[in-house]
Write a structure and sequence with these properties.
Elements: E1 2-7, H1 10-22, E2 28-33, H2 39-50, E3 57-61, H3 67-77, E4 82-86, H4 90-97, H5 102-111
Parallel strand pairs: 1-2, 1-3, 3-4
Helix pairs in contact: 1-4, 2-3, 4-5
């Protein structure tokens, strides 16, 4: 299972863009972090998703040190099946959906940053 999260509706926007390109994704979920939420609210939303699956879970967050990432790290402390990544972007998710490994998608995402 993949969970996308970021400030505002960033995770949802990434998922929508991804599905425009690749079609419906049934194993990708989003958690929005809005102005009225706390880190505890985020943890609760992550835990709601985590409890419905026996799969390994990857949480992708927008920026390191932000509330979505901090909440994901706190969630990870209580679940050995959770991995947390920051720097969420569309290029990374496209690679994953197309079958690349997590490690390869991270490398490709880094290499895709260029000035044109």
């Amino acid at each position: 299972m993949i969970i996308l999260c970021g400030h505002g509706k960033y995770g949802e926007s990434i998922k929508n863009s991804l599905e425009m390109i690749t079609g419906k994704q049934t194993n990708i979920y989003t958690v929005d972090f809005t102005e009225d939420m706390s880190v505890i609210d985020l943890i609760n939303q992550y835990n709601e998703r985590i409890t419905v699956t026996k799969e390994d879970i990857s949480i992708y967050c927008d920026i390191p040190g932000g509330s979505p990432a901090n909440a994901a790290l706190l969630t990870k402390k209580n679940s050995s099946s959770v991995r947390v990544f920051t720097g969420l972007n569309l290029s990374m998710m496209l690679s994953l959906v197309m079958g690349e490994s997590i490690e390869s998608s991270l490398t490709e995402a880094k290499e895709s940053i260029k000035e044109l």
